[in-house]
Amino acid sequence: MNKTTLVIMAAGMGSRFGKGIKQLEHVGPGGEILMDYSIYDAVRAGFDDVLVIIRRDIEDEFRKLIGDRIAKKVKLSYVYQEMDNIPEGFEVPAGRAKPWGTGHAILSCLGHINNPFAVINADDYYGTGSFKAVHDFLANADENEGKYCMAGFVLGNTLSDHGTVTRGICVHDEEMFLSKVNESFKLKKEGDIVTGENEFGEPLTAGLDDLCSMNLWGLMPGFMDYLNEKFVDFLKDEKLDPLKKEYLLPSIVDNMIRDGLITVEVLPVNDKWFGLTYAEDKPMVVEKLNEMIENGVYPVKLWD
Predict the structure, then answer these.
(1) Taking the model in full, what pTM does it have?
(2) According to the 3-state scheme, what is the secondary structure of 221-252?
């Protein structure tokens, strides 16, 4: 059985959240942040260690709030996503304000990942079943067969009551192998359907029961080599706006599927996603966590 690593992307800027650092927002009764619950669930599912991608400017606060406490219970390490972490011969364009997206974030882990690994966002709640499904897939996979996985969430379970959201809607075959992730924007519930825009700004509709990606991926160590190689091509691409373009994990996986390098099995999960997209989401997050504590899903003091 393979050892498995959980990689947490915690370096995002959170522009829609407003003031404060949403990754570090207290939501549990003991001052826990959402990442506490993800790590707790991952460890229960069987993950062996945790690697967190952070920004240097939040390192001290992160260690104070969660790192030093959890490190006593879990094997925990850090890497840093920095905008100037780019290959030799390239420069950060003048006026570029933020790093290069989720693919670039994972590149920060180059040289630090030796096991099959899962990737999650720091500011999302995924649920116990999601981590168990992905862990079991990774623990039993052959690293050399090119078999990856993704937790597929029910789209209607991932919408916010406080604004529109961006989701990757999954296209898959009858055997649940992923064909493509369609990045979809401005998604909101309207009656019995979901409306929004596709990547070209055109209107789209989707079903509430459609599966979508919440960036809970199960990947193999060899993914890092591909990610590193294709980042050079991404930086060279002059068709994209150098100040805004992003090297996105779903697009990278799509390319690997299209080129026949991997298969990605969609693992349907029934956990109800919630997260801190907007500041107005916080009371709902606190309420849902308290309900689960009352129902015995989590202890009141998570790490005691």
Answers:
(1) 0.91
(2) CCHHHHHHHHHHHHHHCCCCCCCCCCCCHHHH
